[in-house]
Amino acid sequence: MRTKAIYMLTLALCAGVVSSCVDEDIKGDKDVNGKAIKFGLSSQRTKTVYDASDPYQINWVTGDQIKIFCAEAESAKSALYNVTPASTAKDGTITNAKSSDVLQWGGDGLLHNFYAIYPGKASGLEVDENGIATFTINHNQKCTVTTTNGYDANVVAKPDMKNALMVAHTATEPTDEAVGLTFKPIMTTLEIVVQGPASNINSSNARVTGISIAATMTTNSSADAATFKYDIKNAAITGEAGSGEATTKTETTFVSLVDANGNASYVDLANGHTLTLTVFMPPMSKEQAAKLKRQMKIRVHITGNAELVASVKTNDASTDNWTTQIKPSSKKKITLPAIPSGIQETGNNWITPLDGNIYVSQMSIPGSHDAATGEDMATIVGDIFAQTQEQTLQAQWNLGIRAFDLRPAIYDAIIGSTHELWLYHGATRVSISWATAMNTIKANLTDHPGEFAIVLFRHEDEGTIGKDNNTTNFNTYMTNWVNANKSWIVDWRPDITIDECRGKLILISRFSGSWEYGCYTGWSHDAAGTTTTVRNASSSVTGTMHVQDYYNPSSHDAKFTSITNYLDIAHQFHTNDAMKNHWMLNHVSGYVGSSTSNTYRANAAAQNPKVIEYLHNRTTPGSTGILLFDYSGAATSGSYNVQGDVMLQTVIDNNYKYRMRRKGE
Question: Between these two residues, 588 and 86, which has the higher pLDDT value?
């Protein structure tokens, strides 16, 4: 990491074999053909700043590396070099990283163009002979915090400076002197200040897991936002082959929090305190910024039901000629409004800001297993043996749950009365009916039309007093309900997009009924899981669904292995074209031994923290599919640290960390 990492650049590096800094335009002894080239940083123009009024400094640290490219060099055309900082940390020496990896002078009198890049090991880094560099955009950045108790002090997170891309260029004929390089930053650096809740209502703090920034980016492919090209010599974003306009589109960058060991972390903010995070955004030309009149939307990712989304103008609309407020390759400090306090009417509407062309199959969707058990159980037996949730269905919606596992069956509450679809977990009845649960979800879809909900259900036909286990009767009742609510239900296809589902239900049944809307599938419950077929109600469209539902594993370790095997399958959905519209249903839920509320809690306490770290520590992020877990949204349940709040937010956050496939891609 860098010291004063978010600060501006003042570089004065000298070659390890040179005792003083050198001028940029060097002419010297030409008889150096085939000799190693010496490098240093020019002292004349090494102080570069993002903004003239904000001349902060970036210091070099041990381990920093740069890569230098030269098409005119004798043999190797690029080489990796180490930077060793001097005592001031502004100065230092440059030495080749390997004795066999060094640039050598070409012919006498031949003008050599040197293009240097920081960091030297940047992913996918390429530079052609014209100085057009291809950079990979990091949509998943991390900042280090040294506390998870942000309420007792303001927290300034330390960014990973390997995202602060810098370039240098100089041209000279062969010389015996060191070649001077002057690095300049190319990324747009935003220092974002998150303020704690507006007041300490209910003595609650806001648990922040990160921020996301949706902004117009410049890329070089209509189907991919992973790279951009930069003309080092002319200091400009450019199109393919160094000419023409690059592609512009809105993409999301996520900044997550980690501790000193790189593990997933969070900050609890109270009223009056702040968390400062730094994000590095790809560059954009002034002309493009003005033409697009772009805006950025910054979302603070908070566990619980609070939501804060702030729109930030990057241009000034006061005149016809828009002028950029956030200059490309500049540094800007943005202070967000205070996080709302108390119970929020809006809830965590995390789907609404996502690109509507994204395939639903690509998403990471948090779900609650046996969701209705967060309501009151009908008997004390249910409290002891059948509870898997702490939160009501409404609370789960507010917290961001968007997949609900419901178990209906027909119940005759009073002998001789009309039967009604009721909710169960096994033989244990929950205190609400199917219609009540679905009306709750439908009301939320009406209030939040940018969202959608997935409802998975089966006929819970285990015997109990007052329950009708006849599948024919169940089919009749469910068919009547589905047909009466057909306008709410998505016409399922494997390649449905977010926009096609907004304000609607995706209904997935494990019971093959006679209704004409929704879809059907089924699966086994062993450790290996199932790759099965999912079809729409009319059987005219089919797709592939991967299901892991090892609900009674031999051990917690065996269960975690099954979970991660299926996380690894879902991880391929945005990279493997053949799997882009496969669906995933991965159950984190379950119990070891006998089925009781406490064994469900024990499984949640064992699995949720490990899944959080597994997702966080992926080298590259990817989909989880639909992830069903117990005690969703609850930090603790009974005496168990289930971490369902951070688990839920981790799955939500995953949608902002990488680029999901869009319609037609």
Answer: 588
